[in-house]
Amino acid sequence: MCSSDVLPDDFTLSTLSKVSGELGALFSGKSIHGKSIRTGFVSDTVVANSIMSMYCKCGNFEESRKVFDEMTIRNSGSWNVLIAGYAVSGNCNFREETWEFVKQMQMDEVRPDAYTISSLLPLCDGDMGKWDYGRELHCYIVKNELELGLDSDVHLGCCLINMYSRSNKVVVGRRVFDRMKCSNVFSWTAMINGYVENGDSDEALRLFRDMQVIDGIEPNRVSLVSVLPACSSFSGLLSGRQIHGFAVRKEFNNEVSLCNALIDMYSKCGSLDSARRVFEDDSLCKDAISWSSMISGYGLHGKGQEAILLYDKMLQAGIRPDMITTVGILSACSRSGLVNEGLNIYSSVINDYGIEPTLEICACIVDMLGRAGQLDRALYFIKAMPVEPGPSVWGALVSCSIIHGDLEMQELAYRFLIQLEPENPSNYVSISNLYASSRRWDAVAEVRRMMKDKRLRKLPGCSWISINNKTHCFYVADKAHPSSTSIYNMLDDLLLTMNDAICSPHLETST
Length: 511
Known about the structure:
The protein is an all-alpha fold. Helix content is 67%, strand content 2%. Strands 1-2 form a two-stranded antiparallel ribbon. Strand 1 (462-467) and strand 2 form a beta hairpin. Helix 5 (76-87) packs antiparallel against helix 6 (95-107) and helix 15 (256-268) runs parallel beside helix 17. GO terms for molecular function: RNA binding. This is Pentatricopeptide repeat-containing protein. One of its GO terms (cellular component) is mitochondrion. Belongs to the PPR family. PCMP-E subfamily.
């Protein structure tokens, strides 16, 4: 076009800027920027917005900000491009700057719209300390009547559901979902995913059924990937198989993300053969997650040698291990007592593949050494770690110390845990029980006093069983269940039977 002496107009330049951004082609994007300056179209707001977006998608935020600052006329799209670019960058240093942009936007008398709010909501999870910002944005939506559930703004409702779910406020997310004027597969999937993230598998599966039965909405691939983790227990295997069958009928079964979720689900449900069949299907174009999921599945079932063989095949296929793969193979070695093999793999991923030793990787090494009874070596490794040991590392040492009955190592690990997690009541109760077993009553009293001063109270243990698609929960000394009388009578009968069996001379002789 240029060689034919046809000058590009604003539409051409904005389109090419967008294409450059989608491809991550920074050099081409800079060429388009230069052409826009030479032709004078850089002063066009739409062209400038496209150039800003291109720089953000290519990760060059400094140039994007420079274009923004040089604009003579800005519209809401200009602010939205900058805010959205900084928000999705993943750079924690940009978070406060993003909120400053929002303030400046309003000072310039430009009102945030639905796109602005949906860009900001992912920053508002509880872990990042932005819970108040999330509620403020929700209030802004209500106050300015940015309707939820309309075709144009259903994305906004999904963002709100995701924000509340990540903040452990799934009940509030459900209120948002129930009040949406219309729902589609995306809003249903967002709510299902919220329940899965918050550990409510029963409600996630119930909602998955309601989506099809009540609203007549057919799940898409993302819906299936979202709901499969809710099936990751023996009681959920049937539901998982049904979802797998649905995926085959709809020809989703060649999607790599769905197959990875199926491998993970089958492994956690105890059906390793089914996981292996999905993994070995010739139609599956395996990625690093596929290999990692299958390796972790072998490790979960104590098949360390098979995990190592698969890990070697992965390397031969030219796929480099990442942090997730490393944790999976080291966990497999730990569960199978393959200490030397695990240490060799650890050395290889650090030295040959340049993987930084994270807390998760180091916790695997501590667990592997500790399970093998090498507690002193595990402690030495902790002291020599290149990263500061966290709760997962000391927790691994605690577990291994309990297995091998090393009270001194157990007390040492608990003390570090209490320093790292001063508000976790479980650590105080555990070390108190440790002191009690050694009849150190003064130490027990001191720990109980610390808990009282901090107003800490441990939640009671809970067990559950799933019968006829309904989950029944039981706490310690719980009598709330309608069948509790029958349950306790059955337990008494079982205890009597067990005591009789222990006292049986025949059993003593055979033992």
